[in-house]
Amino acid sequence: MNWRNVRLIFAREVRDQLRDRRTLFMIAVLPLLLYPLLGMSFFQISQFLREHPTKVLVVGAPEVAGVPPLLDGKRFALKLFDDDEAEQRLLEVDSRGAKSAAKDAKPADGNLAAKELPAGDAEEIKNRARRSMQEEDFDVVVYFPPNFAQRLNAFRERLKAHAAEGQKLDQEVPAVEILSNKAREKSTIGYRRVSEVLGRWREEVGRQNLRDSDMPTTAARPFELPPTIDVAEPGQQKAAIWAKMLPFLLFLWALTGAFYPAIDLCAGEKERGTLETLLSSPAERSEIVWGKLLTVMLFSMATAVLNLASMGITGSLVLSQLPNLGPPPLAAFAWLFVALVPMSALFSALCLALAVFARSSKEGQYYLMPLVLITMPLTILPMSPGVELTAGNSLIPITGMVLLLRTVLEGEYAQALPYVPVVAGVTILCCLLAVRWAADQFNTESVLFRESEHWDLSLWFKHLLRDREDTPSVSEAVFCGVLILMIRFFMNFAMSMPQSLVVLVMFTQLVVILTPALMMTVMLTRSPPKTLLLRMPPLLALPAAAALAVTIHPVLRGLGDLVMKLYPMNEHLEEQLKKFSVGTESTWLLVLVIAVAPAICEELAFRGFILSGLRHMGHKWRAIAVSSLFFGISHAIFQQSVVACLMGAVIGFVAVQTGSIFPGMVFHMLNNSLALLGSQEWNAIKAGSLERFGPHVAGWLDYLVGAGNKGEVVYRWPLFVLGAITSAALLFWFRNLTYARSPEESLQEAIQQHTVQSVAS
Length: 761
Hints:
Layout (H helix, E strand, L loop, with lengths): L2 H16 L2 H26 L7 E6 L11 E2 L2 E2 L8 H5 L1 E6 L1 H4 L17 H17 L4 E4 L4 H18 L11 E4 L4 H28 L21 H32 L1 H6 L2 H5 L5 H33 L12 H28 L3 H6 L1 H13 L10 H4 L4 H11 L3 H4 L3 H23 L2 H4 L8 H10 L7 H21 L6 H24 L3 H4 L9 H26 L4 H8 L8 H28 L5 H14 L4 H21 L3 H17 L3 H12 L1 H10 E3 L5 E3 L1 H19 L7 H18 L1
Parallel strand pairs: 1-4, 1-5
Antiparallel strand pairs: 2-3, 5-6, 7-8
């Protein structure tokens, strides 16, 4: 690569962007104006932010002698608010007796609050109270049953007798009901306020009961809870608040700052007709990619830095007026800038690859939303209270970087230090893959020179059925994978899950996975045998696949255990899985359901239809990776999905190298059978081996295999190492097989060879 050409392209693109007034406004002017205007607007709007009083209807308010009063006129008693009149004024009370509330339900015949009403009349009172919330706009209704005071007095009298004579206290405690409308925010706030007041009144009544029983009031509170002693320094308190906000905002600005320049540098050049001139220059495609990438990265970082600077200045002036929240610490900006460099490179490469694929600037802007929808969960997840920086979370792209920044900004350097290499390695790997993707986009002529087209549904449907190829297209393969995932997702909610594992697995394999693949094969392809790879493999491929399944199984099992340690399974999910019953004791039926059925159905779908269509992308490893990703996501449990992705990549590689689906089926069937065998108790397997093969073989098995905490089969490290070495040798044997390339793969290999020869010459 000639870095002089990269520098020239970089300077050219930067000049073009600086001549664009819209770019300068979005990057430099808007951040400097936005946050001061937001700060001014905050002070303008803050005058309208005040607490509004809650209108409370109290039905049948009790008046019990010797008990602290609940009401004081049209307010709750001031004593219940710790002598805070401001809180007392937030609750406006309209007190009505049970007699007035039930005047339409039953003729007045004395004080109904002191009499036992039939259930129907009491229910009518509550119904009228509910209607009062709508007709008279009450936020909360507090309903005391008509016999509340009588029952409270009886409880207090029995409590005194119990204290004086040692009688048994079996009196039921009277209850009060609070009616609220959770669909209205004012009612929800009012419910919280009224609940706190009634809770304080209950405590006052309880203390009075203790005094009447000649017991100290401290009996209800045998010890005091002191106020929380915060050992955090003032700077750490502010840093903890900003640590959750700044990384999220920084990466959002970096993504936004990278997207629009990338659209202009790629899709915009297609519209202006200048891309052909650049491609005809002596610069290589990779040099063009790096020049544009550095340009997009520069503007991405500039957008993020200017926004941070403007926000810091505004925060020091405006947010410092708020209690417990001052400007962000200066050290935070240094850490944020260090993390900004690789994240800007990642976002710039992703945006550049998407921008090259777009036909026009308008189409390119449509790709922003999918990219944001993928990025947002990865940046919002670390803001959740229960998410911490762990070994498993550090392996998640973007999320690991956000968690690392949050930990560092909180001052926990010792906790963050062990995860720095992991997060840096994952981020750099993602950057390299994104740059490789962008470079591949520039090397694909069909992507660079995509023309605008007028899409017609009827013509497209006729073309789909009439102009069929031997194998599906890339879009058809992706649609099949997405369709399987959608059917599986909606199946979990649209129908009740059978408790039998046999029924669930067979329904999923036959209906959810196999049926869409076979239907699309018949409807959209001309040669089902080529699509589903239904051809005989090389002579030794089947036994080699069987040997590979046996030798690599300990490795996959070890990776599965590692995944379970990194991402422990939720306890609730474990309880749900335990509810599934096997439904049979037949070993052969279990092998048929767990091993044979998935080996046939999943291989025909993922390594048959989907992999055959994805190979038209021109890169076999990219096709293998995408098909294995669909295969992994189709498993309902995340821990299984990770291991399934790795296993799917191995099976996909075997299917491509042999050109047949049958070695993959053999591999899949044996792997699942070994997993089923490993779920049984090792002691029972060992006893059977001892009876069948003798103590010598059983002793060797005991050296290679042991029992886990629950008695399951656990592979020891010699078997793990032996399996890894043997599996590598078998994979190398498959790699040396001559395989049939798709036309797109042959074209890409020719382009790469020509590029290498040009560089060498």
